[in-house]
Design a protein that fits this description.
Its EC number is 1.11.1.26. Keywords: Antioxidant, Oxidoreductase, Peroxidase, Redox-active center. The protein is an alpha/beta fold. Strand 6 and strand 7 form a beta hairpin. The chain has a seven-stranded mixed beta sheet with strand order 2-1-5-4-3-6-7.
Length: 184
Amino acid sequence: MLTIGDKFPAFNLKAVSNTDLPDGDFERLTDQSFSGKWKLVFFWPKDFTFICPTEILAFDALADEFADRDCVVLGASTDTDFVHFAWRNSREDLGAVKFPWLADNKKELSSALGILEKDEAVALRASFLVDPDGVIRMVQANDLSVGRNPEEVLRILDALQTDELCPCNWHSGEETIDVAKEVA
C-alpha cells in the first residue's frame, strides 16, 4: 500500500457527478483535474451495499467543510460508471451527493495504491489525503466490515494544514505544540 510521502498515482477515470445521463460519455477526471488543491480520495468496496452509503452520505454532509479548506472530495470504487449512475438514481439521498464518484473498474488506481482486498479484489475502505503537490499526507484503511469517521479525516486535514505539531485529539483553533516551550 502506498503511504505517507509517496506521490499519489496518476489516474484518468470516468466520474459520475449527478443523476443526469450524459449526451455522450461520463466526464473524465485525472490526478491533474484539481491542480493546486488538497484532495480527499476515499474508496468503498461495492455499490449497492450497506455500510458504503453511510460513509458516502457522511462525507457528503461534510463536503462544504472540506471545500472551505480548499479540499476536493472524490469517492471511488471498482464499480463501473453505469453502476455508479444506477446507484445514484436508485436513492434520492445518494443522487444528491455533491462530489464525483470515480469508476476504477479496471482496478488500475486501486492496484497502484495497493488497496485491493485479497479475496474479492474490491477496494478496501481506504482514504487518502493528498496535498496540492500530489503527495500523500494521510492514509487510512479499514476492514470491509467497519465504516470510517469522516469527522476524523476532516480533523486530520485541519492538523496537516497548520504545518505545526498537533497533539492527540487536537481540533482547529486549539493550541499546537510549541517545541521551544516543551524543552524549556
